[in-house]
Write a structure and sequence with these properties.
Blueprint (H helix, E strand, L loop, with lengths): L1 H16 L2 H10 L7 E2 L2 E2 H7 L3 H9 L13 H8 L2 H9 L14 H7 L3 H9 L9 E3 L8 E3 L1 H7 L3 H10 L13 H8 L2 H9 L14 H7 L3 H9 L19 H7 L3 H9 L14 H7 L3 H9 L14 H16 L1 H6 L4 H7 L4 H11 L14 H7 L3 H9 L6 H4 L5 H10 L6 H8 L4 H7 L5 H18 L18 H7 L14
Antiparallel strand pairs: 1-2, 3-4
InterPro entries: Ankyrin_rpt, Ankyrin_rpt-contain_sf, SOCS_box
Organism: Potamilus streckersoni
Keywords: ANK repeat, Repeat
Length: 514
Amino acid sequence: MGGGLGRLDDLHRAIQKGDKAAVEYMLQNDNSLADCSFEGVSLLHRALLEQNNDIALLLMSYGAGLHPGKGKDGLIHIVCRLGNHVILEHLLEKDVEVNVRDSRGHTPLTYSLEEGHLEIANKLIGHEKTDVNIPALLFVDNTHRPKPIFPLTLAIKNGNDLLVRLLCDKGACPENQDHNGYNALHHASITGNTDIINYLLQNHVNVDVPERDVYNPLHLACYHGHVDAAKMLVQAGADINARKSEKGSERMLNPVHIATEMCHSDLSLFLIQNGADVHTADDAGNTLLIKSMQNGLLPVTKNLVSKGVDVTVRNKNGDFALLFALQFGRRSVQQRLQKVMSDTLLSSRGYQQCSELPDICRTFTMLISAGANLNEKDLQGFTVMDYSVRFALLPILVILLRHGAQPRMDIQLDALQTSDILDVLFIFRSMVRTDLFNKILGRTSCEIQELFFRNMEPTSLKSLARLVVRDVVQKYGDGQTSIVPDLKTLPLPKSLIAYLCYEAESMEELNVHS
């Protein structure tokens, strides 16, 4: 027993060193060692891992890996996984079974395709006994049930159109469906490979699938943003308005909704221009306009408005397009305008720069011009103006005021918001109606009201802004507590805070830089 283990250990070391003569000498003395394993790895597998084909062939000549019953986790799977075409040719000459799955669920062909050993795959496809429609059965999720993955699918994922053609010529069925219901055209649409898509379409693969809970290839091309692939599918007759869901999901979506959700603006525009229904909503009541607002896709929004979509429609939560535009604005406007709004708001050049509003502000103007109701309230009773003040979205607030939005005084004069709105109102005085100023100034002293209505120069107007803000915040609350000391904590431009806190007694001291 001990001597046998010693001989096996010696043989294993000789294989690792690549000493073919020593290996052959030991096998001549005991040929039963050829098909043994050392520490759980067969000696033949070790030789293959060491990339020593001469020793591997020597072991095989003594019967290693070639006995009946050894195919289940056999040599050919190891060879195809490692990409050893020399040993594969030898095995094919020995008529080794080429279609059996190993314990991992792979066939030799699926191993070669998954590992990217294209020369191996080519040899197997050309072998007369290879069945190219036998899938690997792999555990790809947590269901504890193996899922079929076909050789053609793996070739498509590799992007090798030559192997795709060879497989189809050998009889691979492009209509075979995996566990998601996806066929070869689905997977080609996921990768966006137009050469493979074109080949499959020329071979009459159905461009749509009948199942309700399986996306069409066009849905997947839209999800992954492959414009050229989508164009090819549409030209081949794909249903541009097919409403489908994925398996396990109840969301019914058409291609243009998917493209817009995934922020593929060019693809959304292509679908709209080629007949996509722009008026339908998803199961949550979100229209294409709402989705374009959610994702800030101004070109898509402009196109939809030009086609006359309803800009006032609500989803099932009672939200409407302007609210979604505001939510996107909250994420983007402050960041994009931070430089302009931080230190230039009180300067004349800053005023001019603020007129160059970002895309989201232009979107507001466009929606308002198309009939959006500025004073419409959500289910909580708030308007877009209320939210624009709460979130300190000053450029949007200016646009709303210019177009006649009605302020809510209980919202506008909140302690931490008062200075925000007055800052905007005074700096953009020429944009705002006089009656709105009357309402705001009605909360201040008569003396300040009288000062305001005088014909003042810009510097005097900015000085008045400080007086008004300080007057309002001084009186806020129970009449005894002042929040003037907290001005520095407010979300205001630094120059304005300095001015309100009298850290700069004149506008010249602000050193405002454009």
